[in-house]
Design brief:
Layout (H helix, E strand, L loop, with lengths): L20 H14 L5 H12 L5 H13 L4 H42 L4 H25 L6 H15 L6 H20 L1
Length: 192
């Protein structure tokens, strides 16, 4: 039986390699202002990987996987994790604040307009437009992150997960119980 090399631990960035705090603030503020819906991960990828090159694609996929396993909203977990990697604990707090405060203010403004008499002829089309854009962003995020499902076995696990949760409407806990064990085995075998 071949010996397995231990995987290199993911080390936090050294302070010498960390970007300036104002750049981290600007990046997360841009994400918080322009992103919404299920496709927010695509914004993270654009801003932090493609544009700024602060993380590799593999590091980003690992961060997404970890943030999905932790309790709480995935996008908040991802922001805190990436912010901490870039700027320590202040970066984590900053990232979550930049992600939530602009959206919260936008919701308050929309609620004020709605309850202040915004015509119903506008609310329906606006809601449908935002829903369509959100679905499109979510699909784009899935297509960009498809590298995490590498190979036929990974694609089969992803397809099985979609089938159980989507068309078959199985509860999420049963989907996890069914799909996580083969995913862990696959991950273990590919690292061996």
């Amino acid at each position: 039986m071949p010996t397995r090399e231990p995987a290199a631990p993911v080390e936090p960035r050294s302070s010498a390699a960390r970007p300036p705090f104002r750049d981290v603030l600007r990046a997360f503020l841009v994400i918080g202002i322009v992103s919404f819906g299920g496709g927010r991960i695509a914004y993270f990828e654009d801003e932090l990987i493609a544009k700024r090159r602060w993380f590799s694609h593999a590091e980003f996929l690992e961060a997404v996987a970890l943030s999905q396993l932790m309790p709480g909203p995935t996008i908040g977990n991802l922001a805190a994790y990436l912010g901490q990697r870039l700027a320590g604990w202040p970066g984590a707090v900053l990232a979550v604040a930049c992600l939530t405060v602009p959206g919260g203010l936008a919701i308050l403004a929309l609620a004020w307009l709605y309850f202040g008499g915004m015509p119903a002829s506008l609310t329906g089309p606006i809601g449908r437009g935002v829903s369509a854009a959100s679905v499109g962003l979510a699909v784009a995020a899935v297509l960009r992150l498809r590298g995490g499902a590498g190979g036929v076995a990974g694609a089969a696990i992803a397809g099985f997960t979609f089938l159980l949760f989507g068309p078959l409407h199985r509860p999420i806990h049963w989907v996890l119980v069914s799909c996580l064990p083969p995913a862990f085995v696959l991950a273990w075998r590919t690292r061996a």
